[in-house]
Amino acid sequence: MKFFVDTAVVDEIRTALSWGILDGVTTNPTLVAKTGRRFEDVKREILALVKGPVSLEVTKMDFAGMMEQAHALAAEGPQVVVKVPLTKEGIQACKALSDEGIRTNVTLCFSANQALLAAKAGATYISPFVGRLDDISEDGMLLIGDILQVYRNYGFQTQVLAASIRHPVHVLQAAKLGAHVCTVPFKVLEQLFNHPLTDRGNEQFLKDWAKVPGQA
Ligand code: E4P
Questions:
Q1: Catalytic: 83?
Q2: Which of 105, 159, 165, 182 has the most CB atoms less than 10 A away?
Q3: How many CB atoms sit inside 10 A of residue 152's CB?
């Protein structure tokens, strides 16, 4: 499973890259707004750092506007993946962009039928929002399984990108189901490293090592 970090905070991306486990980045308008920075600056810095896929989202909701934004975003670098919403216009743009060879990430997916539409339109990635479904008392992970099954049935190449991840169990569940990608908030990515037995074990090893003659 590929790991993307779901953030627009450049320092978080730099740190995650330094760990050697990061495959790409997803952003959205809310994540950019949270940085309090200009999108142009954030985008330039992220694209200078990250060689893997970087999802940048369109904010125009009409087809022509979306296409104009998408072309401008795609021109910023070969790693740009254009994120479009799962609306009629978004799916239309997805089809047009994929026909042009521009990679797309169809976002705000909450049903397997929506995911089927995205795959038929040639989406590179489909982003089902697991956490937001959990928030309304549904089981978001069921959707990941359903989409994987539907895509397998027809051999669709669209990759399932588990999004709206809230905690490490979501990451494990996505991996067990075989999601192609999981986009993980920085805090959750950090949590994946943690285990109290690792800390306790390391502490003991270091104490014991200090007892070995000749070791300081
Ligand atoms: C996906 O690409 C989105 O940026 C993100 O995962 C949304 O997550 P949220 O529900 O925590 O806002």
A1: yes
A2: 105
A3: 10
